[in-house]
Design goal:
The chain is α/β, with parallel strands linked by helices and 476 residues long. It has 13 helices and 14 strands. The longest helix is centred in the N-terminal third of the chain and has 22 residues.
């Protein structure tokens, strides 16, 4: 028997509360110098209005259930870790635009409805592999995301005031997203509003598809068959449920539904580093009513998955659980088939998603200009090593990302399953963080616009190319 599951397979579930995770091992939690200040901030957060409402969360779960049945496709994407400085209208609009553009390509090419789920309005924290890192020859605490500390070396102490900053920036981001949606930003009658200002030459198949959609709509409209407003769908928000005191403070009991919800987002997920079966994160997530995601890496065994499924989805509710695989190119075949069979044998109607980003990271040496180094938040934190000439940066190759997607989709088809979702780290900005794609970005070109404070993201051109290829996979 798997040692990780030995103590879990026969023990009954204990009563749950939003605080029942306390006292269990909690990975990736920051240490604050002033615990009293943390308590005061959390108490204030508990009294602030929720960011989303339970009805929206339940609606998303119904849509995810349809995706698990093959009736829709889930597109989840956004920043590795949102930066407070990026809570600006133009940046938020560009993030929304690229998701809408991708969904148009997938809907048109794959003949399926798309659910938009942004890594946005709350994705302010990231798990890290170490406690410290070296920046410009100085050892400092690792950057854990703006929710916890700052990217500049002199801002690395965990600051509880940032929890309130995160709440207010998430609220501002959500307010802008809602205003855009309600104001017709996602109206298919005017998809030209989705054009990104920084470039049109890289749009590739997107502009061709846009013309086809317009022609089709013109034809149907002449027949009197189109409503006045034709939206592409709703925009939902998601983030990794990492900082458990913060997530608990955003948890509310909703009397009408008789359940507890995390009303800081519509969807939350647990990562590969925090999914311990007897850990605090799974204990917290098992009791909230939100749809949740579980990252599934190469270390996941059928026994571990079986216990995790029973813990997170004991009622086998459609739309409740999304399994987000993240293996790396060339590694899925050794792991995924057994996991597919385990979920099927246990009767869990999971939605299978592929995250082809996190298993395909690597580091390279590249030069960064003094101007990029001076940007601090952007280039400075993403790079490590020699501060004078060369820097070590994280990158991902477009070809590796695509290879993993194709391998996972093929394995699902071969085993009577379906890859019904994708999970990307991407941006609408003209960054140069991942190599490859139609624009032919190489390692030497990374220095032009490497801006991520954590992991590399697909830019708009690479994202649209990926969406076109996903549509092809869906049709196969």
């Amino acid at each position: 028997m798997n040692p990780e599951t030995a103590n879990m397979t026969s023990s009954p579930m204990t009563p749950w509360s939003p605080d029942s995770w306390r006292g269990l091992p909690a990975a990736q939690q920051p240490v604050y110098r002033d615990p009293a200040a943390v308590v005061a901030v959390l108490a204030e957060l508990c009294e602030l209005p929720s960011l989303v409402v339970a009805e929206e969360v339940d609606f998303l779960q119904r849509l995810l259930a349809e995706a698990a049945e093959g009736k829709r496709f889930l597109l989840q994407g956004g920043d590795c870790a949102e930066a407070f400085a990026d809570c600006r209208g133009s940046i938020i609009q560009d993030k929304m635009r690229v998701l809408l553009q991708m969904s148009l390509l997938i809907t048109h090419g794959g003949r399926t409805g798309v659910i938009h789920l942004g890594r946005i309005a709350g994705q302010y924290a990231k798990p890290r592999s170490g406690l410290t890192e070296t920046v410009n020859g100085q050892e400092v605490p690792v950057y854990r995301g703006d929710l916890i500390n700052g990217l500049a070396p002199d801002q690395r102490e965990a600051d509880p005031r940032r929890l309130l900053d995160a709440y207010y920036r998430a609220a501002a981001t959500l307010n802008h997203l809602r205003a855009l949606m309600d104001g017709g930003f996602a109206d298919l009658h005017h998809p030209e509003h989705w054009d990104l200002s920084w470039s049109r030459e890289d749009a590739g198949h997107y502009l061709e598809t846009l013309d086809q959609v317009r022609n089709s709509m013109d034809f149907i409209q002449r027949l009197g068959g189109l409503p006045e407003h034709l939206r592409t769908g709703e925009m939902f928000t998601s983030h990794e449920a990492l900082h458990l005191p913060f997530e608990t403070a955003m948890t509310r009991f909703v009397p009408e539904q008789g359940r507890h919800y995390n009303l800081g987002a519509h969807f939350v997920w647990v990562g590969e580093r925090t999914r311990q079966l007897e850990g605090a994160h799974l204990e917290y997530l098992r009791g909230i009513a939100n749809p949740i995601g579980l990252k599934v890496g190469a270390s996941m065994t059928p026994d571990t998955l079986r216990v995790a499924l029973s813990k997170l989805d004991p009622d086998r509710k459609p739309g409740r659980l999304t399994l987000i695989t993240r293996f790396g190119a060339g590694r899925a075949e050794a792991v995924l088939p057994a996991l597919i069979e385990t979920a099927r044998a246990e009767g869990h109607p999971v939605l299978w998603s592929c995250d082809p980003m996190h298993g395909n990271g690597r580091t390279v040496m590249t030069g960064l200009s003094p101007e990029q180094e001076a940007e601090g938040h952007r280039a400075g934190g993403a790079a490590r090593g020699d501060s004078r000439m060369m820097r070590e940066v994280k990158t991902r190759a477009f070809g590796d990302i695509l290879q993993e997607l194709q391998e996972v989709a093929t394995l699902h088809r071969a085993h009577g399953s379906r890859m019904g979702a994708v999970h990307f780290e991407l941006t609408g900005e003209p960054v140069t963080e991942c190599t490859g794609g139609m624009e032919g970005l190489d390692e030497a070109g990374l220095q032009r616009a490497y801006r991520s404070g954590c992991d590399p993201r697909l830019n708009r051109s690479q994202s649209l190319e990926m969406a076109f290829l996903i549509a092809q996979m869906i049709r196969e």
